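Apologies for my clumsy wording, but can you show me some protein sequence, whichever is easiest, together with the matching structure tokens, please?
=====
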Amino acid sequence: MHTKRILKYIATGCISLMFTACVPSLVRKTENKNMPVSYNQVRDTVNTAKVNWKEFFTDPDLIVLIDTALRNNQDLNIILQEINIASNEVRARKGQYLPFVDITAGAGVEKVARYTRSGSVEANSKIAPDQEFPDPLPDFMVAATVSWEVDIWKKLRNAKKSAVFSFLSTIEGKNFMVTNLITEIAIAYNEL
């Protein structure tokens, strides 16, 4: 019976510990109501997103780090090349509205074999011997072709619009990458 009583006290103690462990304690925190000096100043109508990062950060070591990282980041350089590609695609799509003019030129020489149909006609013709076909027959050609696609079904307009959207998305991707890179460097620099 004595052991039953001890087990009863131990079980009651464990249950009471479980209930007290689940109740959170209330901690009162006081807020800091001091405003930074530069928070509510009206500078001008420039959006803070348009402020250059070199104006935002004042530490020269951090500026050098960020500048080096932006210059040498391989992913950023790849995105810059994709922007050039997308820009060229927009120019190409704009050019599809214009008519295409192709100029071709060619030169050739034809030598007719004696024992072919053309050669026998030349040999058996009733032309004076001093007025035969020239031995090598020259062939010159200059041609110009013009083509223009009328955009009835909006194929060209949709292709141009798609190229413009692709160009704009690559620019925004670059902006996002630059912002993330600068943020990561600034956070790591301030933590150090």
Notes: Strands lie at 100-111, 136-147. DSSP finds six helices and two strands in the chain. The longest helix spans residues 155-191.
